[in-house]
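Q: I have 151 residues here and want to know how they pack in 3D. Can you give me a structure?
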Amino acid sequence: MIQLLAAEAIVFEGLKAGKKVSQIAKELDDPKSVRTYARINKMMELGVITREGYPKKYVYHCSDKPYEVVESREAKAPTLSPAEPDTVLCGLIEFSLSEDKLQFLKKNYQIMSRTQLAKKLCVNKLELTYVMHKLGLKQKEVKGEAAVVNR
């Protein structure tokens, strides 16, 4: 059964009786018919009425589907699928470097860029960043005039 709001039911019954939209809008105290047309569009989405013709000469047809008048229409929340584990994150948590690679990293992390380190260690930058974060290694920040780009 289709649920209509009280004002939508008035519009539906008015169209079913053959009234013009402007007449129905006057009944609903909608001088410019804006809300009435919005209600008509909503009812077309619900499949209660259909429209034929051209603007200013639309002909509305009401369906014979039963409806009920409700105070408010409840919006149905979309059903979410169960959360799937993030494969990248799971792989990252299990990731570790060998002792040789760890010593190379500790020796060179302030000298080389992360891209260069990742290439030398044969890992991607995400894995390298994760390991550096886990070990508390921070790269040297660029300060002063070296950071300013001349134009």
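Q: Anything worth noting?
A: The mean pLDDT is 83. The first strand starts at residue 2 and ends at 5.
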